[in-house]
Design brief:
Shape: globular
Distance between the termini: 41 Å
Helix content: 25-40%
CATH topology: Ribosomal Protein S5, domain 2
Number of strands: 4
Structural class: alpha+beta
């Protein structure tokens, strides 16, 4: 993850916790705060010592950062995010974790609007169950 996309200082984390909003599922919590200055989102990841030893915590942080990096084009700009890893996340493989993080960001309203534009289709073919022609 690029340095400019990371929350690094304690002051930044505190500002997000204090002034931001939160949303959670069973595996992760996301705190976020909108910024007035333009620029891409910034991310911080928190993994408590209750999760395990440093190797485990660092692995979880790396995985969450990689998930967000791979999906950076979906995350809204001008927002600071802090994702907190909960203990049930330790049981997930990478793909399940990605699904859980993206679900959390979507539910929190932090993803860019992915509705199809006027020149793009829905990305899916016709629905035969609704009377669409399955042959194209």
């Amino acid at each position: 993850m690029q340095r400019r996309l990371r929350l690094r200082s304690r002051k930044d984390f505190r500002r997000v916790y204090r002034d931001g909003r939160s949303f959670a599922n069973s595996r992760f919590v996301v705190y976020w705060r909108r910024r007035s200055e333009p620029g891409p989102f910034r991310l911080g990841v928190s993994a408590s010592a209750r999760l395990g030893k440093a190797v485990v915590r660092n692995r979880m942080r790396r995985m969450v950062k990689e998930i967000v990096r791979r999906n950076a084009d979906r995350v809204q700009d001008q927002v600071d995010l802090v994702i907190i890893v909960r203990k049930p996340a330790l049981e997930l493989d990478f793909w399940e974790m990605e699904k859980s993080v993206l679900h959390l960001l979507r539910k929190a309203g932090l993803t860019k609007d992915e509705r199809p534009g006027p020149d793009r289709g829905s990305g899916r073919g016709p629905n035969p169950a609704k009377g669409g022609n399955a042959s194209g």
